[in-house]
Amino acid sequence: METIQCSKRPKNGSFDDSDNETLLPGLPDDLAQLCLSSLFPSLLFSVCHSWRRLLYSPSFPPFFSLYALLSPLQNPTTISHEEVAHRNSIEFFSFDPLSAAWRPLPSPPQNPPLHLLHRHPSFLSRKLPIQSLTVSNHLVLIAATTHNFSPALSSPLLFHPESNRWFYGPQISTPRRWCATGAVRGVAYMASGVVGSYYRGDVARSMEQWDLNQKSESWGWENKAQLKDGRFSREAVDAVGYRGKLCMVNVKGNAVKEGAVYNVELDKWEEMPCGMVAGWNGPAATMDEDVIYVIDEVKGSLSKYDDEKDCWVALIELEQLKRAEQIAAGRGKICAVSANGEKIIVVDVGEERAAARFWEVAPPPGFEVVAAHVLPRITRQQ
């Protein structure tokens, strides 16, 4: 079998960065790209610079990367209230699985100024929620808190990896410090939540949707069927999209909880199946909106939901998954933020094997992980 090499690759094996390097000798680049698109990204990355550049070009099918909201590790007691009021405690990074390297995302727009607070010096033991989700290959920030305990976002803040840019979505009618939020089929949902330091019954029962499938000039929030009560306003809730429905529970961990299911097509709230709510004992996420995974915070077990039997099927139990704070699912991988955001545990559930394979990804030095997401890699300018 003949081995095909990139042109201009020197005999010593080092890469040649010359601009006239072709993808495949004897073929125009458009045909060469079609041939190379069937190869594994890890192979393209390791052979030569021209193939590596192709991997990150806008015209090449993107591989997927890990995105994270990170908070600097520092002693909050050393930060004055004035400093808290003028700083953003969150930074945004992407982890490239091919180069095994973290890279910062471009800075978000500062008009209006962005102040997302994860810890406050007056409340050292409590983490303030910063709610984010992925919708239609966008990273979306939807609710957070400022230094004066007010809602930090009057509009959702989006990052689009393909264009490598940030922008704001439609104005939120009632911005929240936290809420119940999730996505189904490219539509983002915001339900219940807290506006400030006081309770508002109308907000606690509310439900709104924003369809990202529409053109941006038509974006807006639309009121939907209300919740029966305000029980989902107690804390930040990560709702998960599952087969045309939005599923959520009102309390985290192993506490007694109430579940709710929103039927998107019927615009109707339904009772959650008993087996589903009984085993929902930690952070949850869905793979392609078809399979729900949950981590039991106490046992450290990862399970998936069997809708026919209304039960949870255990896949793996790990010490590292105990007290997991948040999970994301994508491309056959479960990415779990460990206790205190010390690392991200990646579990491969995409292949049938006796024991699921897992590995750890450490955040950049000096940071803790607040949330993780799976999205297409960032496009780089050639």
TrEMBL record:
The UniProt entry, under InterPro entries, shows: Kelch-typ_b-propeller
Could you tell me the superkingdom of the organism this chain comes from?
A: Eukaryota
Region feature (Disordered)? 1-20
Name by which UniProt lists this protein: KAR-UP F-box 1, putative
Organism, per UniProt? Theobroma cacao
